[in-house]
Amino acid sequence: MSAREEILRRIERVESARGARRATGDGDVAAAYARIDRRYLRRHHGGAGDGGILDLFAARVADYRATVLRVRVSEVPGTLAERLAAGSGSYGVPSGLPAEWTSATRAALVRDPPVSSLDGLAGAVTGCAVAIAETGTIVLDHGADQGPRALSLVPDRHLIVVLAERVVADVPEALERLDPRRPLTFVSGPSATSDIELTRVEGVHGPRALEVLLVE
Amino acid sequence: MTGRAAREDGPGRGAMPTYLGTPSFPDAARRAVSDARLRGNLAHATTTIRARRAEAVAELDDWAELREAGRQIKDHVLEHLGHYLRLLEEKVTGAGGTVHWARDAAEADRIVADLVKATGETEVVKVKSMATQEIGLNEFLAEEGITAYETDLAELIVQLGDDRPSHLLVPAVHRNRADIRDIFLRAMEDVPAGLTDSPAELAEAARRHLRAKFLSAKVAVSGVNFAVADTGTLVVVESEGNGRMCLTLPETLISVMGIEKIVPSRRDLEVFLQLLPRSSTAERMNPYTSMWTGVHPGDGPRNFHLVLLDNGRTATLADDVGRQALRCIRCSACLNVCPVYRRAGGHAYGSPYPGPIGAILSPQMRGVGSEVDASLPFASSLCGACYEVCPVAIDIPEVLVRLRARVVEDGPRRPLERVAMAAAGWTLRSPTRLALAQRAASSARRVVARGGRIRRLPGPLGAWTETRDAPAPPSESFRAWWARTGGREEDGG
Ligand code: SF4
């Protein structure tokens, strides 16, 4: 008997010994699943008329010791140019990043850099798919304005442009908006570890500097 | 089929490394308690994290509802495990991954080693995983000529220090920053000259040490926190970015998961992504969570293998009370609050799973035939703190009581009774607050009475049940004592 058959048979035996219905049809499972008690909140902040979601998001991201800059759309090129000029070296950008965002930037930009070159870059600039106010989390689905996963991982600085309409109040809403068939990366602050005396220390393998431009 | 035949031919027990030479809990615990430095490190770390966890949890008004949903989702999966495993297999395969099944540790080790060999590589990078520790994968790969590099900072500390993990989440929790610096200076070949014990410098040293490995690795091995059955999506929750490196940069990714790690649907992640980070590192969200579904063309590994591991899980599933241990999401909150763990340290539990969860998981997965496994159910004062913090409401004391009965029924009697008594004695002896905690628990929770299974154990263990049932009202309730002292040690045990 293959390992697969044997494991499934062990499980079936337990199920039948427990008097559970044998060969449960999909319908039964779905009905049982629908009965799961989900009385938890869909969101913890930001009820109707609450304009505080962006404030909450900015504060919670800052709690992780990331840099948060709140800008108007027209200020994105200038602010980005300033931030990038503060470092030295070139920056990777995905080809789908709106060109106007980097229109004022003097720093060298590399479009869609190959993975082998990433370790030599000063940083990367990307957009994001969704952002979660409650937890200060930014989610990348690695679409055209974000690039493949390695781009925002290997370089030491990650600048993310977050459009206000991408910010949701809480975790459940964020998951609803995401496509599970895409690779997803949830980022909450810069790389950190709790491995030394259970205390958070920033900066291990991922980007040590996380800078967020929140566009309102 | 007769019950007897079903038992013999039924769910197999698992195997995992037993870490101690003289392996009963009380002997190992006694040794650990005499190590003042270890106890100091452990007490410091767990006291800090405990307070922060309480804050992180208090921030959500609906914690009780989230916890209940988490419990129900996991129970639902365990009730329909065969269905969900088949569904997961179908979805992962459909997304370009390959699914393998392993009855036990040896089979899983063999599968992984053969997959690595098929790539022609002799090195793999690893992201911390309980499942691969459970199957002793690194040791097996070494025998097969394959070097596994642990990339999690704590695992690196354990590996470089030629040490054993002592905590689920922070395997090097028994090491303080000065210890870590010493280990790095001794064992890290490219250690920066003049390394101090500042945590930032230590983290930086680890970053530099592993960077080249990440960039050149062709094969990675990971565990899995959650597997979403209806999409085939796998989830890894981490902090440092070493997980992202392993999941993204190599050409081949091999992930090993216990069969109980499934959640039915993506929607269920909304529950666990709230429960897990707050319970484990006391954060609103951990720095990085990665999700992937099979193979993503142009992004990440080109080959993905998922190994589904039984290794005693189906045996655990067979017990009506004990099966709730399979709800565990490995957050480690129960370790941090456990007065016995805080005194004994993780190594005393003699398996990759320390603390209260280890005390109910190891004896179920491996059976209670060995001294260490027979003594583990007694390595507890049944104070119930573990149950209160558990984000999926595993009633650990209830399972412990159940397993105590099993030790008495199943074990080769004499030696097991001796270790069991020794463990119970060690747990309950001298430190007054433990006795206090135990009495408080006894009157407050009535685990034994409520379980309705054992009021009095036969033979010498009867003495123990008598103690347990003694209704002497505590002069100070466990909660009050806890609030006053935070569980700090007051004597040398
Ligand atoms: S038993 Fe509960 S508290 Fe302990 S590690 Fe598992 S989920 Fe966390």
From TrEMBL, chain A:
Pfam families according to UniProt: LUD_dom (PF02589)
Top-level taxon of origin: Bacteria
Residues of the LUD domain: 125-215
SUPFAM superfamilies: NagB/RpiA/CoA transferase-like (SSF100950)
PANTHER family: LACTATE UTILIZATION PROTEIN C
Protein name: Lactate utilization protein C
